[in-house]
UniProtKB/TrEMBL annotation:
This is Malate dehydrogenase. Residues 146-169 have a biased composition (Low complexity). One of its GO terms (molecular function) is L-lactate dehydrogenase (NAD+) activity. PANTHER family: L-2-HYDROXYCARBOXYLATE DEHYDROGENASE (NAD(P)(+)), L-LACTATE DEHYDROGENASE. Belongs to the LDH/MDH superfamily.
Length: 228
């Protein structure tokens, strides 16, 4: 079953759960891990009425960790901690690993790995969830996504990672100033009321990122229409 096939069923589940969580723990931080993740994070944000700092999607750290891991596996002889990279866009086929801004030990990744291999790594990152599910055969890969973002939140890092945040009104990726999107920043900085941003190569990722934003927006619109 694709992520999108789960949309309306999981929308109802997330709505019910968020309502109960908010009623019992009004000061909590919500970190959805339900697919389709971007749409469910948006739903949790809408239903909870929480400020943006307290609804945080998890694909940022998960997809970026996969991307960095696959890069490190390419006989680079470095730790994933030495790879400066991030993944933008939605959690799924439309995600955008930012190859042009990926740095390993001060060198652009394009100087260390041939383009053909980089393209294959990008594709593997996009299909990472399906790969794990295929290994498991049954059940879910929920346990892997759950730990990294929660630990990152409890121990804020100065390193730059992407995470779901509210798109600014001027963003071309959003016509709605209340739409969540994934953007680079420091995980945990939301608690302190600061928003850290970096500027990736816009010309290289602009169109893919726009397509990714459009795909997420379509899911949100389906949910909005279903709710009348």
């Amino acid at each position: 079953m694709s992520r999108d096939d789960l949309l309306l069923t999981n929308m109802k589940i997330v709505t019910s759960v968020v309502n109960e969580v908010v009623a019992q723990s009004p000061d909590t931080v919500l970190m959805p891990v339900t697919n389709p993740l971007d749409a469910m994070a948006q739903r949790a944000f809408q239903v909870s009425g929480f400020p943006k700092q307290r609804v945080v999607g998890m694909p940022d750290i998960l997809d970026t960790a996969r991307f960095r891991t696959f890069l490190a596996m390419e006989r680079l002889d470095v730790s994933v901690e030495s790879i400066d990279a991030w993944v933008l866009g939605g959690h799924g086929d439309s995600m955008v690993p930012v190859v042009g801004s990926t740095i390993v030990g001060g060198q652009p990744i394009s100087k260390l790995i041939p383009k053909g291999r980089l393209d294959a790594i990008v594709k593997r990152t996009q299909d990472g969830g399906a790969e794990i599910v295929n290994y498991l055969k049954t059940g879910s890969a929920y346990y892997a996504p759950s730990l990294p973002p929660s630990s990152r939140w409890s121990r804020p890092s100065s390193s730059t990672r992407s995470r779901l945040s509210l798109a600014p009104p001027t963003s071309k990726a959003s016509t709605d100033r209340r739409t969540l999107r994934r953007s680079p920043g420091q995980a945990g900085s939301e608690r302190r009321g600061r928003d850290h941003r970096v500027r990736p190569h816009r010309r290289r990722i602009g169109r893919p990122l726009q397509r990714s934003a459009d795909a997420v927006r379509e899911l949100v619109e389906v949910m909005d229409n279903a709710n009348g």
